[in-house]
Amino acid sequence: MVLFLIGFIGSFLSGMVGIGGSIIKYPLLFYIPSLLGIGAFTATEVAGISAVDVFFASIAGVLAYRKDGYLNKRLIITMGTAVLVGSFIGGYGSILLSDKSINLVYAILASIAAIMMFSSKKENVLEKRVNQIEFNRLIAIVSAFLVGIGSGIVGAAGAFLLVPIMLVLLKIPTRVTIASSLAITFLSSIGSTAGKIITGQVLFGPAGVMVVASLIAAPVGAVIGKKIDTQILKAILSVFILATVIKIWFDFI
C-alpha cells in the first residue's frame, strides 16, 4: 500500500508538470519505508525500481498529451536519441558505483535543476505552430546526452533536468516543453531501464506495484495539468525540486 501511494502521488505530479516522476519518487522510496519501519531500500534498489516505473509513467503521460498537438517531433527526435544513448551508458555503468555515490549524483543533478528552474524568466506569449519552433540543435544534443548519463545512474529519465534546459536554454514554450519532455523521458527510460535490468539491479515485485499506480495516476495528472496556468506549473516543479535538494544535501552533511 505504501509503495502504491508513493507511485500514485509521484506519477500524478509527474503527469501534471511533465516529468517522469523520479525527482519525487526517488526520495520517497528511499526515506518513507524506513521512516515507517516497514523496510528499507538501498540507493541501488531505489534506482532500479525508479527506472522501470518511469518507463511506464512516461508512456501514460505521452498518451494523455498526444492529441493536444503540443508534441514537437524534431525536438523529441533530437534530444531523445542523445538521451537514450547517455541513459544506457549511465544505467549499465551504475553497477560500478556505491550507494553513496548514486545518492551524490542524484543530489548534484537535482541541485542543477533547482538553480535552472529558479533562474527561468517568464516566456514571451508568441503564437507559433509547435513544429515551427526553432532551437539550438548542438545544445540540445550535448545537454541531453550528459543528462542521460547522470539520470541513467540514478534510475531517472532526466526530465527534472530536461524541463529546465528546454525552458531556459532552448527557449521552448512551457506547454510544448511539458508534452515533449514526457516523450523524451520515455526514450531516456528505455536506456536506463535496459541498463538496470541487464546488470540485475531491478526488484520486479516493488517495481510492479509502482507501475500499476503510475498507469492510473499519470494520465489524471496530465489532464489536470492542461487546465493550470503555466507559471503555476513551473512553481510546483521548482518547489518539489528545491525540497528534494535540501533533504538530500542535509543527509550528506
What structural class do helix, strand and pairing data support?
mainly alpha
Overall average pLDDT = 79
Helix-strand topology string: HHHHHHHHHH
β content, as a range? under 5%
Number of helices: 10
Give the tally of β-strands.
0
- What percentage of residues falls in helices of 4 or more residues? over 70%
Biggest beta sheet attributes: none
Uncertain regions spanning at least 5 consecutive residues: 123-127
Q: Based on CA inertia axes, which overall geometry fits?
A: globular
Distance between the termini: 32 Å
Cα-atom radius of gyration: 16 Å
Explain how this protein is built:
It is a single chain. The protein is mainly α and 253 residues long. Helices cover 77% and strands 0% of the residues. It contains ten helices and no strands. It is globular and about 50 Å long.
Jot down its keywords.
253 residues, mainly alpha, 77% helix
Quick overview of this protein structure:
The chain is mainly alpha-helical and 253 residues long.
